[in-house]
Amino acid sequence: MRGEFWRAQVDRRSVLAGLAGVGAFLAVDLGAVAYANDWIRPAARFTRQTVIDGLRGVYGTHLGFRKDHAKGVAVTGYFDSIGNAATLSEAVVFRAGRTPVVGRFSLAGGDPFVADTPGAARGLGLAFDLPSRQQWRTATLNLPVFPDNSAQGFLARAEAGKVVPGTGKPDPDAMAAFLRTHPETAAAMTVIKRHPPTTGFADSTFSGLNTFYAVDTAGVRTPVRWSFVPLQAALPPDKGRDGLFDALVRQIRTTPLQWRLELVVAEESDPHDDATLPWPADRRRVDAGTLTLTTALTESPGNARDVNFDPLVLPDGIEPSADPLLSARSSVYAASYRLRTGEPTSPSAVQVDEVPA
Length: 357
Known about the structure:
Helix content is 25%, strand content 25%. The chain is α+β, with helices and mostly antiparallel strands. Helix 2 packs parallel to helix 3. The N and C termini lie far apart (49 Å). Mean pLDDT is 90; it is low at 1-21 and 30-43.
């Protein structure tokens, strides 16, 4: 499957006219409902529905929740740009000033009630509410590279890692067979194992693992990846099924949590269309400013529960690369959004008001 099978056919920004704040975030996602029905060529055998059905087969059906990264907590805050990245991109978010942010911490997987484990991949989705009827959304992970370079590989890995009833563990033979036929994932896993997870959400580096282009006022396009680098340690996980989330909630109650946004600039030899391949550690990093998260909220109507963190919702000054995962993620996210907004909802596993002080 190539990226064109997944590419959207409408301009998402057109639904933003006259809207502001969280309402603007929701407006983009309501637009997704309208165009999610005809994104994949009818003749394509591997579609976004293939992914949705496959994830349900791995994790079960959980109505009203995301089909991946189902367990989460909403957050709010702001981003203070210091203007350094404006030399690379004309995006409003990189001009000196403050931008409101809505976000969501999550764990990978489609079970919204799974027990927190230290090794589970942690996500941070962010939506930046920009002036001039623009937005920037990004979905980041606490990994140095992404394990897969195609939607088919992502789904096949999820299926190979499905827990076997009666054992509580995946079938090691199934994963070994998958890795034999996906050397790109085997190599990525080696890189990931060299970067063990940190204590919690607050001290995790969250990276947008795909390549984008920063575009300046002269039209010069610079390939970049970005990372949110923590500026604090994390509280140790609490005991219980929601230990990572509970520790996050307790910490953000007492002090805002901060991350430095760094844009990593590629050199000519660096890959642009394969998120399994790392860039060398000595690449130039531009300090774009500080993300501050001030409030944690139980997922509910009107907050980040209802935001689709589509990586192709981009402001002027940021453009996608040819990485096929970008259009695949955008399409599957839209389909997941369309489904869950039409399903009955259940309370989130993480109830912020019930977390002890």
